[in-house]
Write a structure and sequence with these properties.
The structure is a homodimer. By secondary structure, chain A is of the alpha/beta class. The first copy, chain A, has two domains: 89 residues, Ubiquitin-like (UB roll) (Roll); 137 residues, Cytidine Deaminase, domain 2 (3-Layer(aba) Sandwich). In chain A, strands 8-7-9-10-11-12 form a six-stranded mixed sheet, with helices on both faces. In chain A, helix 8 runs parallel beside helix 9. Chain A is globular, with a radius of gyration of 20 Å. Chains A and B meet through strand 1, strand 2, strand 3, strand 4 and helix 3 of A and strand 1, strand 2, strand 3, strand 4 and helix 3 of B. Strand 12 of chain A pairs antiparallel with strand 1 of chain B, so a sheet runs across the interface.
């Protein structure tokens, strides 16, 4: 309840409609900076919607490659109840974790004489150890069509503010495991994966990740890092997202709306009829 | 034409509809990394939709506070036609510009013993010199309602890919000056403001900036940096965006759809009837 309250603000606004202005109360999606650090070592600051902060930090550290397993985290400390204005999480790492200055801000490798390109960016992710998700699950198209309504039913903040992104994990049969919301799409995904990491559920080899916005490059990267075989979104992916999904073997579904979707990569994991595929129509 | 082509990719996908799978061709919004540097000094790497790269870099450097005027830029060099794979811009600054290591990655100040909060974040922006936009223009609600249809008519890529954000500048009477698109919301705004900077049009004291997505914290910050008095979006702002707009005197309009909108901050710049305001209805 407490966290739920922190994710919404109520404020006075002026609504204009057809020439008539009215003062009304309106809900806003809360956005506040969160500082991550390990003792005196700064790990970064991110803007996020308060709530599930430990999951956010755990998911961020994992999908960014700073840690590679649950055991790399000894503790995640947030301030107690009386200091809720203090937006920080203090991370204690296992002694084996190597922290470099700037390691949490250098998301892309630059520096080659010819500039950077999509191919170099993907090669860097391979060097970081990202591999094709290990999964032999065949997903049912009808199951996929049932996911967006379940996500909407589970979203408690979005309907009131219109400003939050959601990410949700589903079992192979379409059972909702967890849903997380945030003003930032990446944060919603980090919270979801952080939940799985802290619950000892990684890799998520049989699961579907559904995001309310686009399935962009960084969302694809985070999904692969968590071993997720199928990423679905209700909107369009980018060219680099599709390229990365194809090269690293993630199944990428977009425009999942009603009884229609588009498969951009990895269609071998979706049970579509081969005859229909060749026959067209 | 060339830049337009680079912003779209065409690819083969599988479309599933009501049990029937078909191979079709589909347009994707292009996303590629762009490296910014000044000689050997790295300024950062961002994912963006190719096109208007010089504007993107100029707008980013300006709204991030690295430069404060057109004259701070001596040149922006992009590779010639034969090397379009090279995604970089080389910036030559005026000798007066001070570059610090990490200056382009440290967007928020952290480090106080009590963590960070919205108030500290806004205080930091004040220290950077952000001030209330100087404008005495009174904007017409009917003019505002006419902007989203004009933006949609001008957007050439969005309709085909469904994956791009747009930002557009309008005159006080609603005339469209420029529209820029990008896979990233911040980039679309940086390209728009960069266009104005390079054209010697800053500050934009009488203009309206319309964005296709949310009016989030960083979009508010960029608008104020450019002197824009009115930021409008078709969706919801966050709590921190509203807080910053109120404290620094930006007029913030959300949910601008059809003949309705919500004023979150600075309603003195919008010509709404005071009697209607108090009378309600």
């Amino acid at each position: 309840m407490k966290q739920k309250k922190r994710s919404i603000d109520l404020t006075q606004v002026t609504q204009w409609e057809d020439g008539i202005a009215t003062r009304v109360e309106d809900y806003l999606a809360a956005e506040e900076p969160l500082e991550m650090r390990s003792g005196n070592f700064p790990l970064g600051v991110t803007l996020r919607t308060p709530g599930n902060d430990e999951e956010l930090v755990a998911g961020f550290l994992f999908t960014d490659g700073i840690i590679s397993r649950r055991e790399d985290l000894i503790s995640l400390q947030t301030p107690g109840d009386k200091t809720i204005e203090r937006n920080f999480v203090d991370v204690t790492f296992h002694p084996d974790v190597q922290l470099e200055a700037g390691s949490t801000t250098r998301r892309f490798s630059a520096g080659s004489a010819c500039g950077v390109c999509g191919k170099a960016t993907i090669a860097e992710l391979r060097r970081r150890g990202l591999r094709r998700p290990k999964s032999t699950t065949l997903f049912d198209p009808e199951m996929l069509c049932g996911l967006p309504p379940r996500l909407r039913a589970a979203q408690d903040v979005f309907a009131r503010t219109g400003g939050l992104h959601a990410a949700a994990l589903f079992s192979p049969t379409g059972e909702l495991l967890v849903v997380r919301e945030d003003i930032g799409r990446h944060n919603a995904v980090d919270k979801t994966i952080g939940w799985a990491l802290l619950a000892g559920r990684l890799p998520l080899s049989d699961h579907v990740l559904l995001v309310s916005g686009r399935g962009g490059f960084e969302i694809v990267q985070k999904s692969i890092a968590a071993g997720i075989p199928l990423l679905a979104s209700v909107s369009a992916p980018s060219s680099l997202a599709v390229q990365l999904a194809r090269e690293l073997g993630l199944t990428l579904v977009g425009f999942l709306r009603g009884r229609r979707f588009v498969i951009y990569a990895g269609e071998e994991r979706i049970a579509v009829s081969a005859s229909a595929l060749h026959g067209g129509s």
